[in-house]
Automatic annotation (TrEMBL), chain B:
Record flagged with keyword Oxidoreductase: yes
The protein's name in its UniProt record: (2Fe-2S)-binding protein
Domain of life: Bacteria
InterPro entries: 2Fe-2S-bd_N, 2Fe-2S_ferredoxin-like_sf
Keywords: Oxidoreductase
Pfam families in alphabetical order: Fer2_4
Amino acid sequence: MIVIGAGIIGASCAYHSIRAGLSVLVLDRSGVASGTSGAGEGNILVSDKPPGAELDLALLSARRWSELADELHAEDPTTDIEFDAKGGLVVAPDERSLAALHQQADAQRSAGVTAQPLTTAEVATHEPNLTPQIAGGVRYPQDAQTQPMLATAQLLRSARRHGARIRLGTTVTGLLRGSSGRITGVRTDRGDLFAGAVVNAAGPWAGQIATLADSPLPIEPRRGFVLVTEPLPRMIRHKVYAASYVAAVASDQAALAVSPVIEGTRSGTVLIGSSRERVGFDRTVSPDVLGVLARNAISLFPFLRDVAALRTYVGFRPLCTDHLPVLGPDPRAPGLLHACGHEGAGVGLAAGTGTLIAEALTGTEPSLDMAPFHAGRFVGSQGVNREVQP
Amino acid sequence: MSTPARPPGNFEITVDGEPVPARRGQSLAAALFASGRASWRRTRGDGRPRGLFCGIGVCFDCLATVNGIPNVRVCLAEAQPGDTIHTQEGTGHDARGC
């Protein structure tokens, strides 16, 4: 099989497929984790998803991530992906948003999520540096974090140890079809490569790969900025975000949506997000957006007022316009499987995605009902990829 | 930071309580280096010594606490009369952790 994309999704597909006995070649036009995987925070979240197929995938994935951290460490004790089962904390600024947050937590509990309602005083014991100007919160112990570039690299390193090959700097320019119409490989700028199956794990560029296979998918880039502070001692224990974040993720608006998401890292820096804009692949830094991120962060953690921000980075979440990933075989292109459209949850959903793709390739009973993620829902779709060509 | 008046040609700054000579237009890093100091910070992980590396504000190695503000890149800070520098252990914010 050929995996297009050496990001976290492609790496997990390669890792799980090689262990399932497949022969694996990973291609990337650039480097490991050089796109979206290298521009995020490494969130592994169940807290931000309402009950449904994506939450089921998130729960499967959260379990698999914890196992993966152990598997990688057992294989090579020097391997560290900075996996941290730190838990998430969602805070509500007022009684109205707290009621909505509790309602969502109740629904999530019935789907298998652990969600602990906290009073303002209880929140303060969990996050001593958080503003007391909140109505309350909900703690989600299943939320976790990993360092996404390390995780991508270590999954690929392990896959390579088991026989996978990785070719970087190789651009896919076309998909090859046999006389039966089946996808038989890829055309690249370095020649044709043949395989029994091709997995599209091209992140925000997955729509372009789908178009090369005449099987369009509505995958669009959704831009986000992250502000990085100077390293600090531990000041923030959880991934902390405002209840408005869930609405921002689910939103369909193209205009800027901002919702505070703040967390520490092993190295001591604090990562401050989040912004969402549909502006194509425009990497222009927006000081206005960064200003809003900083103000929102200070409103949650007042100590940040006296902390320096060192740098910022920008990335593009691969948004599938119906807000669900596209996973598994494409009925329009036999031999092509998709593993894309994870929006801002790709790191978190990668472990489950790789598991499901390996199961699909080997004909194993899937760990989850794949129907909601099926590419067949876009049969007849024109895609949206006109605007994303650089 | 504002510079109220043009500093005199030669003046003193203080490094961990010791007077160190400095010249107008000199960076704090240059003054530290000229006084024979090669390092003025210890890393937050292993406590390794750090001083001037890139010298142009990119690498964040030359951090020190200047006039009470931690993590100042002294290669970019122009010396001013009376500047007080403290060598820095760890993040410079270590008292604040929880």
